[in-house]
Design a protein that fits this description.
231 residues, 2 domains, alpha+beta, globular, 15% strand, single chain, 6-stranded antiparallel sheet, endopeptidase fold (from Nostoc punctiforme), 45% helix
């Protein structure tokens, strides 16, 4: 029988990461913010096979530039699993489609204009190359890999997201540094909470076994307890 704890932890992490992947809507808006008009970005500095990054408030979105103002990128999306209508699927992914896609663990590697891909954000080009010295594939190879993967695919915020897609295409290894960093942060928080709880339990045990602790030590025991409860 599989241990349910790792599965539950994985599910919790995915739900937390979902919250930071939702595109925020402006106050009072009843729908999606329209992307900039064509020509907003200068694509003359992009080359086929380039890895494009769009930093957002809490995460980074990634894509592979294919040339001619086209970017291949992975987006969670429920539509590919319920319809084959390419015209509907090709429309800009709304938050509702994105959330349902994450829940259903379905996505598509789609080709959009630079404007639709960036959605008003600034673009970094090949910024990750510094992390993959001597592992950068040829630009044409990266673009071809991206083109071969266009279409519906399985999705996971932790194990198969847009960063896994682009690192596979450009470096030959599907990895996600922002996912790893997020998981390490959650682990650190859990370890800190456990250490506080452990110190509280040890303090309480010493009171029970040795009698009431001196008044000077009581704050040391109960302040971490209240902090743990508040967290």
């Amino acid at each position: 029988m599989k241990n349910p704890v790792p599965q539950a932890a994985s599910l919790l992490l995915e739900k937390l990461m979902l919250l930071v992947h939702i595109r925020p809507l402006p106050a009072g808006s009843g729908g999606e913010t329209p992307p900039p008009a064509p020509g907003y970005y200068d694509t003359s500095c992009f080359k086929r096979g380039d890895l494009l990054e769009v930093p957002r408030t809490l995460f980074i979105h990634f894509g592979i530039y294919l040339g001619e103002n086209r970017v291949a990128h992975m987006m969670p999306d429920i539509l590919p699993s319920i319809t084959g209508d390419r015209r509907q699927i090709q429309q800009v992914v709304t938050n509702k489609r994105l959330i349902l896609g994450v829940i259903a663990r379905t996505a598509s590697v789609r080709v959009d204009t630079v404007e639709d891909f960036a959605y008003g954000g600034s673009i970094l080009v090949n910024h990750m190359d510094r992390l993959f010295e001597n592992q950068v594939l040829g630009s044409e190879e990266a673009a071809r890999r991206a083109e071969k993967l266009v279409g519906a695919t399985a999705y996971s915020l932790l194990w198969n997201n847009c960063e896994h897609f682009v690192t596979y295409c450009r470096y030959g290894a599907p990895v996600s540094f922002q996912t790893d960093k997020f998981c390490e942060t959650v682990k650190m928080i859990i370890r800190d909470q456990r250490s506080v709880l452990a110190s509280v339990l040890v303090g309480l045990a010493s009171i029970v076994c040795l009698g009431v602790a001196p008044s000077t030590t009581l704050p040391t025991i109960f302040i971490p307890f209240f902090l743990w409860m508040a967290g």
